[in-house]
Each structure stands twice: as structure tokens, then as C-alpha cells.
Amino acid sequence: MTELTDPPIFEPFVARPPWWGGDLQTIRNWLVAGVGLAPEDPPAEIVPLPAGDGSGDRMIGLLSRPETETRPLVVLVHGLAGSASSLYMRMSARHLLDCGYPVLRLNLRGAGVSAMSCTCRYNAGQSGDIADALGRLEPLLLARGAFIVGFSLGGNILLKFLAEQAGQFPILAAASVSAPIDLAASARRIMAPRNWLYHKWLLAETKRAWAGAVLTEAQRRGHAEARSMYEFDDRVVGPCAGFSGADEYYARCMGLRFFDRIKVPTLVIHAIDDPWIPASILEGVVWSDMPKLTPLIAGGGGHVGFHARGGALPWHDRRIAEYFAAATA
Q1: Domain count, the chain
Q2: What is the pLDDT of residue 41?
Q3: pTM for this one?
Q4: Distance between CA atoms of residues 265 and 274, nearest Å
Q5: Which residues pair with 297 in a beta bridge?
Q6: What mean pLDDT is predicted for residues 33-44?
Q7: Partner residues linked to 255 by β-bridges
Q8: Mean pLDDT confidence for 48-56
Q9: Please, are residues 63 and 285 in contact by the beta-carbon 8 Å criterion?
Q10: Which whole-number Å values give the CA distances from 29 to 90, 134, 199, 224, 255, in the listed order?
Q11: Deepest in the core among 52, 136, 181, 200, taking most CB within 10 A?
Q12: Residues 227-234: contacts with CB within 8 Å, 24+ apart?
């Protein structure tokens, strides 16, 4: 493995017409999926991954293998209201498979097909579930090491995992894409008046995902009555995770507080025009104090969009593949 003291020089982001601006960049995946143009899931085998907390929950991974396996495993972790079958997960998996990597797309607790085997639901601080998933894999899958990519909320979970538990596993490098590393600031942004449509959709999808969870009576009332993401986090998600409410949940689980403990080479990708997560949350980061972190802050790209000139493959997928290739050169 090459130590990434000198990360690759990345091609700058230039938006692909007609996807100009953060909003069009963000919604393009939904539009493509809505008109039936999304690529199919790559062929995959189902991998049950039991949680280690005694709940009986089983996350479900989808493992795709290239014809010849000579490269490390890549684990992909989806974002809020996503799953292993989200378009950005499929696009990343297909590209990495083409590059020769075996790819595991992880359905977090209650997401996608994991909903049928879980009574709990994931949250922004559920980093132990990544460790449980890695610990349940066949040892041969990790024999060449592993890379991990986290998208949106999955990126926040990943960053916390890297600081807390990555040393238990042969993690070679990692990447986060559009991670809400300041959860309170991200909640305020998504609830801003200009984002009312995003907020309405996200709250509805989150409530739907939590409909099958085992909740207390107070949490069930919160599920039914919450009219904002903050209220849902305050009355349902935070208490389910063992916190007093949203404020403690946000403060204890935000990825930003774990940056200085990350010892794994990690690419941090974010767009200045992300309509969901303010780029200002990165302004106070002293990157020189954290040499394992490589910031890649693009002028455009929206939220997990990055639809750039040069082809249909998202810009972030190309940059992540370059970063991982440099780690194994």
C-alpha cells in the first residue's frame, strides 16, 4: 500500500449541461430514476450481516464481484432515505466493478431489504453497525484490505467509524461525499424556507422508513405528530439512539468532532452549492492539522450530484477511484 502523503491532483468540477446550479445537480438522480432511465442494479449476492447489539437485527449487504478479484473490497454506505439500490450507489458500484474491485453495498438497519430483518433503524451516529458488518464478512473478502465510501448521512456515520473503530480492520482509505458533518447546521438548512420541498420529501421518506421500527408509546406519538426533521429527531431518532433529544444527538454524533481522530487516509468531497448542507461548516477546519484528510471542495455539484462534463459517470466517482488507485499503487 502507498501512503497517501501526496494525493492525486484532481480534475476540477465543471457542470454538464443542462444541470447548472446546486438544485438541478441534486434532483437529477430522482428525475432520471423517475423516467425509467436509471441503470439496473449490478448482479449481486445477498449477504446477511447480523448486528452485534443483541437486537437480532440483520443488515443486508449486496456483494458484487468482478470476473477476476485482485483488488481490495469497496464498501458503499448510503445516505438518509437511501438504500443499496439508490441510483448513486448503483452508479458507484458499477464503476468500481469495472475498475476491478469487489463491491459491497450495505443496507443500513431498516433500509431497503434490511427493513424486513430489523426492528431498529439507523441514525447518524450508528458507526458500530459498519464495524459489525465488516466483522461478519468472510475473512477472504478483507484479505487485500478494504476501502469505504459514505454518502450524505452515511458519510457522517463513516467518519465517526473511522475515528472510533477503523483500527480493528484493514482499511486502506476512505471517502465521504456530501456528509452533514455538522448535524445541527444541516438540519437548519434543510428546514429553511427555500428548501421546503426537499424537507417535505425527506420527512415523509424518513417517517415511512421508521414505520416498522419498535417504538415506545411516546416515540410513536412523535412519529405521527412530528412536522419537521428537527422534531422527528427530537422525539424519535434521538431518544431511540439513547439521547435526550435532537440537540444532544446532533452534538454527540456530528462527524466534525471526530476529524482529528481519523488515522485513515480519507477524501472529503463537498460542493459549495449543496442546497442541503451549508459549505460554511467546513470554513473553520484547519486541514493542515489533519494530514490524513484530503478536502476536495468543488464549486458546484449539489448534494450527491456532481454531474460533470466528460461523461455520464458522476465526478465524485471518478475522483474516488483515482484516490483509491493511488492508495494501492
Answers
A1: 1
A2: 81
A3: 0.96
A4: 24
A5: 270
A6: 75
A7: none
A8: 96
A9: no
A10: 11, 29, 17, 29, 25
A11: 181
A12: 227/203, 228/191, 228/199, 228/203, 229/187, 229/190, 229/191, 229/199, 229/202, 229/203, 230/187, 230/191, 232/203, 232/206, 232/207, 233/187
User: Using CA of residue 294, residue 300, residue 304, residue 306, what is the dihedral sign?
Assistant: negative
Parallel/antiparallel/unpaired status of strands 73-77 and 103-107: parallel
The per-residue pLDDT for range 253-297, each reduced to its tens digit, is 999 999 999 999 999 999 999 999 999 999 989 999 999 999 999
- Contact between 57 and 109 under an 8 Å Cβ cutoff? The reply is yes
Calpha distance 122→87 (Å, rounded): 20
Contacts of 82 (CB under 8 A, 6+ apart): 88, 89, 111, 151, 152, 154
One-letter identity of residue 327: A
Residue length of the chain: 329
Report yes or no on 218 lying in a domain.
Answer: no
Q: What is the pLDDT of residue 4?
A: 62
- Answer yes or no: is 300 within a domain: yes
Q: What is the number of alpha carbons within 13 Å of residue 147 lying toward its C-beta?
A: 28
Domain residues for 313? Answer: 22-182+254-327
Does an H or E element contain 324, and which? Answer: helix 315-327
Give the strand pairing for 293-298 and 103-107. Answer: unpaired
The sign of the CA dihedral 178, 183, 185, 190 is positive
- Asked if omega into 18 is within 30° of 0 (cis), the reply is yes
d(C-alpha 168, C-alpha 47), whole Å: 21
One-letter amino acid for residue 173 of the chain: A
SS3 291: coil
